[in-house]
Every structure is written in C-alpha cells, then in structure tokens.
Design brief:
mainly alpha, Peroxidase, domain 1, 14 helices, metal ion binding, Peroxidase, Peroxidases_AS, calcium
Length: 329
C-alpha cells in the first residue's frame, strides 16, 4: 500500500518475492536500469559499500578501478578475476603476475555481494558488481565529478587462467605500438588508451614495475622524481622487498587530470606512461586532457562504459554466481 512513498531499498526487501528474479532471457543485452525490477536496491547497495570502503582507504577505490580493467581485458567483463584457486584450477587469473600480489579490493566486492545475496539472492552478477563498484570508486575519488550510468545485465564466467593475465594485460614496460595493439585487440582505440591511462592519477605501484626507468638504465624521467624514487625503492626489488609508492605525486588520493600535467613534466612512473608522448597524435590528446577543465572526467566515464562491454557472457555461457570467488557448480 502506498509503495511510492517507501524508500527504494526498503521496497526491494518488502517486494523480494515479486521483484527479485533469476537469470535474464537468453540473448538479452546489457542496459541501464537492468535491475530496476529485478532488484531495485542493487546499485544503491554497491555504492553504499564502496563509499564506506573508499572513505576508510582511498587505495581500495583505485584497486577496484584497476580490477575492472584487469577483469575486462581477460575473458571479457565476467568476474573471472575474482575466482579463487581450486584443485581443478590451481592457477586462476588472480594469481597471475599482473594481479598478484598487487590487485586489491576483493573484500569490497565480497561485502557488496553478501548484501545483495541477502536482499535479492541469485540475481546480481559479480561482473555487474565490479562494473558498478568501479564507477562508484571513480565517483567518490573524483569528488563526485565522475558520475555516469552503467549498463548492466552481465553474466559471470567460469574460465580463469593465470596464463591469460600475461597474454592480454599490457605490462608497464610496453611501448606505444604494443599498447595500441593490446587495446585494439579488445576493440578499444588510442583515445581509450590515453583516457584510461589517466586512472594512474590514483593508487600506488610496486617499485618492481618501474625500476627499469631508474639509473643505471636510460630514462627521460624528471631527475627530481628519479631521486625521490631511488630513496624509496631498493636497487633490485624482489617478492619480499618491493615497496609501493604513489603514482601521482601531486594529488595521490584524488582522481583528477593531474596525471596528464605530471606526464608533460616527466613525473610519471611507467614506460607505458611516458610512451603516450612518443607520438604527436597521443601527445595532443595528453595536452587536451591536461589543459581543458572537465574534459578528461567526461571522457573517462565514456571509456569505462565502453570497456565494461568487452566480450560479455550470455545465459548460454555464463551464470550468476552466488559466491564471487567460486563457480556455482
């Protein structure tokens, strides 16, 4: 009675039996508002969990945005990066060198999924949780400037192989040609490459990811940054001695366009960052993002939606996992 006055998350609980349904029909497409009838509180729940986590530790938000990229570029956006090792599959994606031990935020996804399973069991895919959580991380870390609608209706995959993390995720030592090719393989272009690289405005990196740019190796890194990094990193990082440093020395806990002004000053960590200035075309895009206020935030939102549509599973080859860390069967 008079449900129009009831807050949406309460309505979901009260109408659980009527509104929380199972898998979508085969051949369905992702769309904005996919859970409006199936589980009205879905996006609110994820945003609430992410907001609390990011307020405690901004690095978790950075990790979740990176998680979305690492998930979508391997097996498509299907939450395969969340699967734990099992006797049948002892080496899943999350144990691959690009992900372990640096990828973080898994506990935030688990927390959001646990609430969703209580409210609307078997309805919201883990792949959609990642997509929502990455969007919401950007929303909070940008001071609410990056805000966009994320289509949903993804299914979760069951294939997760460590070897594919190395095959499809571009490493920090790639040159521009290699970066462009790796993005092109996923139907992403140079614009997407430059824009998504801007996510390096937040979070931290292990020293081992950029010591190839420190003396005695040749590098065009700003000498001031070089000295700072040498004071924080061992000469030869290893698994037991591999400290982290912030990726953006200006605004390390805020998503903004400072990455691009840092890049123009040679204050970036990776070979793959510096590579964006090795072509006139990509260098121009860097300058646009650096000097046009609000431009990068809008382009980042668009690129994240595009990335979140890579190689999606359907009901025919996917499922809605009850636990994001294991397949249902």
């Amino acid at each position: 009675k008079d449900m129009g006055r009831v807050p949406i998350w309460i309505a979901c609980v009260l109408l659980l039996a009527a509104t929380c349904q199972g898998k979508g029909a085969p051949g369905h497409r992702v769309r904005v508002g996919y859970y409006n009838r199936k589980c009205p509180a879905a996006e609110i729940i994820v945003r609430s969990v992410v907001g609390k986590a990011v307020s405690r530790n901004p690095g978790l938000g950075a990790g979740i945005i990176r998680m979305a990229f690492h998930d979508c570029f391997v097996q498509g956006c299907d939450a395969s990066v969340l699967l734990d090792p099992t006797p049948a599959n002892p080496r899943p994606e999350k144990l691959g060198p690009p992900n372990f031990p640096s990828l973080r935020g898994f506990e935030v996804i688990d927390a959001a999924k646990a609430v969703l399973e209580r409210v609307c069991p078997g309805v919201v895919s883990c792949a959609d949780v990642i997509a929502f959580a990455a969007r919401d991380s950007a929303y909070f870390l940008s001071g609410y400037k990056i805000d966009y609608k994320m289509p949903a209706g993804r299914f979760d995959g069951s294939v997760s192989l460590e070897s594919e993390s190395l095959q499809f995720l571009p490493p920090p030592f790639f040159n521009l040609t290699q970066l462009v090719d790796s993005f092109k393989a996923k139907n992403m272009n140079e614009d997407d490459l430059v824009v998504l690289s801007g996510a390096h405005t937040i979070g931290v990196s292990h020293c081992s990811s950029f010591t190839d740019r420190l003396p005695a190796n040749p590098s065009d890194m700003n000498p001031g940054l070089t000295r700072l990094l040498q004071s924080k990193c061992p000469v030869s990082p290893n698994f037991t001695n591999d400290p982290t440093v912030v990726q953006d020395i200006v605004t390390p806990n805020r998503m903004d366009n400072k990455y691009y002004t840092n890049l123009l000053k040679r204050n970036v960590l990776f070979t793959s960052d510096a590579a964006l200035l090795t072509s006139g075309k990509t260098a121009l895009k860097v300058m646009e993002n650096a000097f046009k206020p609000g431009s990068w935030e809008k382009k980042f939102a668009k690129a994240m939606v595009k990335m979140a549509a890579i190689e999606l599973k359907t009901a025919a080859n996917g499922e809605i996992r009850r636990n994001c860390r294991v397949v249902n069967k």
